[in-house]
Amino acid sequence: MANEPRKLRYAIIGAGMAGILAGIKLKERGEAFTIYEKAAKLGGTWRENRYPGLTCDVPAHAYTYSFEPWAEWDAYYSTGAQIQTYFEHVADKYEIMPSIRFGHEVTAAVFDDDTAVWTLTFGNGETAEADVVIAASGVLHHPRLPDIAGLDTFKGPAFHTARWDDTAPIAGARVGLIGCGSTGIQIVTALAGKVDKLVHFQRSPQWVMPVPQFPYTDDERAAFRQDPALIDAIRYNEEYIGAIKRFTDGITDIDGPQMKMIEDACLQNLENSIRDPELKEKLRPNYRAACKRLIYSWNYYEQVQDPTVYVETGGIERIEPAGVRMKDGTFHELDTLVLATGFRADRFIRPAVVTGAGGVSLDDFWAVRPRAHYAMTMPGFPNLFMLNGPTGPVGNFSLIDIAERQWEYIDQLLDQLRSGAARKVEPRAEAFEDYETRRIAAAKTTIFGSGCNSWYLDGEGVPASWPWSYDAFAEAMTKPVLSEFELAA
Question: What is the pTM of this model?
Answer without folding.
Answer: 0.96
